[in-house]
Amino acid sequence: MADLEFPIERYAALPDLSGLAARDVRTVFPESALIALEGRQKQPLFVSALIHGNETVGWEALKRLQAWMADHPLPRSLLIFIGNVRAAERQLRMVPGRPDYNRIWRAGETPEHELAARVTEIVRAAQPFAAIDLHNNTGANPHYALVHHERPEDLQLTSLFSPNAMMTHNPPGTCSEAMSAFCPAITAECGHSGVAANEDAAFNLVRDVLHLDHWRGAPDLPLDLYTVTGRILIDPDARMVFEHGAEGDVEFPASLEKWNFFDRPAGSTFARILNCGNPVRVTTETGEDVTDLCFVREGDRLILKRDFTPAMLTTNEAAIRDDCLGYLMEKAG
Ligand SMILES: [Zn+2]
Q1: Residue 4: per-residue pLDDT
Q2: Is residue 157 included in any domain, yes or no?
Q3: What radius of gyration, in Å, describes the C-alpha atoms of the chain?
């Protein structure tokens, strides 16, 4: 695979996207694409879509943007990156056996890292006003942003999308973190794919930032800013169940996802351990095991040791096995 190369094709206009689903992306963008559209203010807004191929919100937001542009002049220039077109064609997060396009924005050896480095250099040279990476997620979550700096302009950008924000540098190699080296940048996590209200929210965010003349130096709304204590991992051999009384090794409530972005107090039950062993662990960004700081066992109950706010909890077993059960966060500041 060492001879694989991914070109970036550059465009000065958007082809007609109306009627095209994200899986049809290669009929108009056969390779990853950068589209530069000129607006009244020349400093561009950078928007990325389809970095994860099955997260269609960015694509659908671009279709809304194109329809809107039919009778509205662009208030600010746009630089649009269309990411993993091969994964989108297959309606997958990423192409099997190839890197995740949201983990390639730091130094690395693969052709995909090389692609990300070239895109970063082009965007950096354009001195963008801001960068927005549009994603969907699994699990029941409110809209939330991943933000990487406590700079006032990053927090204002965040507040234009949602009051829920995670301050994080992880996972390493995300697009928005790379862009945050030279402009305010967020990942906008827009809920489930295929939901019109989520696509509207993504479009509204892009349109609002296009209309923003300058950064005022403060959030537009009060933010709930969280830092991540750790990710919750389940022993790959443990059988998980999501209903009371079912046979397994660890039991979570069926409504687990309803805890996302809700405060869970110290002393509340997080799970039940039905057999011996410790199938639930929490690790930090650097891989340090912090399970004992987060949980304590009382009989068969696994209890929160401190006040936490979970996020990205999912009951989707494949997502848990591929990634994690979710995250434990604490209020920043
Ligand atoms: Zn994503």
Answers
A1: 66
A2: yes
A3: 21
Residues 6 or more apart in contact with residue 205 via CB below 8 angstroms:
132, 160, 161, 188
How far does residue 172's CA lie from ligand 1's centre (Å)? Answer: 13
Which of 222, 252, 279 finishes a domain? 222
Domain carrying residue 233:
227-331
Q: What is the mean pLDDT of residues 289-293?
A: 97
Q: pLDDT, tens digit, for every residue of 254-263? A: 999 999 999 9
Ligand 1 centroid to residue 27 C-alpha, Å: 22
Centroid of ligand 1 to alpha carbon of 299 (angstroms): 38
How far apart are the CA of 189 and the centre of ligand 1, in A? 8
Tell whether 290 and 211 lie within a shared domain: no
What's the CA-to-centroid distance between 320 and ligand 1, angstroms?
15
Query: Residue 5 pLDDT > 90, yes or no?
Result: no
In a domain, 55, yes or no: yes
**Is 137 inside any structural domain?**
yes
Tokens 């494949």 belong to which residue?
Answer: 318
Query: Based on the domain organization, do 246 and 218 belong to the same domain?
Result: no
Cβ-Cβ contacts under 8 Å for 100 (sequence gap 6 or more): 52, 93, 94
CB 291 within 8 A of CB 235: no
> What is the whole-number distance in angstroms between the Cα of residue 78 and the centre of ligand 1?
21
Distance 138 CA to ligand 1 centre (A): 9
Domain shared by 240 and 161, yes or no: no
Tell whether 1 is covered by a domain: no
Q: Is residue 203 scored above 60 in pLDDT? A: yes
